[in-house]
Amino acid sequence: MLDSLSESSNASTSKSLMALTGLSNLTNYKVPLHEIIPVAQARGVYTILDAAALAPTTRISLRKTPVDSMAVSFYKMFGFPTGVGALVARKKFLDILDRPWFAGGAVDLVQVPGVIATPAECISSRFEVRTFAAVTKPKSYDILWLQEGTINYLTFPAVIAGINSLSKYIDMLPLRLSSLYHYLYNQLSLLRYPDTETPTVQILTGAPSLPSATPPHGYVLSFLVLNKKGEIVPLSHIEALAARKGRDNLPTIAPTFKSTPKHPNPIPHVLRTSNTSSSTAVYEKPVVDLGRTERTIALRTGCACNPGGAAALLGIESYMQLVQPGATQRSLELVVGRELGVIRVSLGWVSDWSDVVAFIRFVKGIQEVVG
């Protein structure tokens, strides 16, 4: 990334925007923002920071991290309200944006049929004449230009309360959470099947640093569960076990997927439609009775809305080259030969030692079911 920035020229009159992820929600990698942002600024490249995974456990200073804009999720920061976040942006950055559309709340009258749109009265003085063919931005910065529809004002008190509460603890979170994460990582790494000494889990995220107030990583752990033979246990099996209140009366579940071969099967046509099949792929959805279940373990399986990170962690980039238009996840799984994705757990503001110990016990219990 730095090499690409260094090679780019700042002599061009066109504007560029670089989107950065502060912390990967899957690989647990923290981007070295202090190295990238100065280079981007020197090259005239604007920056937007996705801080959704970073902000819940890290105090972010826009003086020390002078990005042009930043997106955060209040739901990820303190759990409520859902669907509410914020775009924090510098005025000079908003001034350069061109918006080719408009929607409810930003217009007073729309000509139908026609191309004329009259801005809403509250911001009309800020706008030049605008039409469907050429929607112009305000003559000067006005936040209403970016705001459409009805504001979710009923949630504002919750946002304020959440920020005030999190602010009291956020400076203490890195040291506490890095201690929890270090213990969780090491304990899972030590788990073995007693009779074969094969590992119970395959951890995909990097090894943590020693507990620190400024760790170079986050608190996200991505892994897979293995059976005694070293084969990956399907994610749907783990979901079923996590939904159970206890291990009593759990059915014994045998993995139904072969290990992923080192090289993809040369049958790219399988990836063209969702209803093709292949005799070389073993794919069976497990039949598990989930009646009368009670969820006690919260974890996430799949790609966690990060398909690039998941493909890298799973080492299936070569299979991605086979994907054709119209392909589905099911069709890709048929070629790879197993369910795709990872198991992800993360630590946050309310996590404590009891949560970590309970999860380690849960994984130990999986040994008896899938071993």
From TrEMBL:
Every copy of the Aminotransferase class V domain together lies at 13-112
Looking at the record's lineage, which domain of life comes first?
A: Eukaryota
Arranged from A to Z, the UniProt key words for this protein are:
Methyltransferase, Pyridoxal phosphate, Transferase
Q: Name one GO biological process term.
A: methylation
Q: Does the keyword Cell cycle apply?
A: no
Keyword Methyltransferase assigned = yes
Select a single GO molecular function from the record's annotations and give it. methyltransferase activity
Q: What Pfam families has UniProt attached to this entry?
A: Aminotran_5
Q: Which PANTHER family does the annotation name?
A: CYSTEINE DESULFURASE (PTHR43586), CYSTEINE DESULFURASE 1, CHLOROPLASTIC (PTHR43586:SF8)
Q: What is this protein called?
A: Methyltransferase type 11
UniProt lineage: Eukaryota, Fungi, Dikarya, Basidiomycota, Agaricomycotina
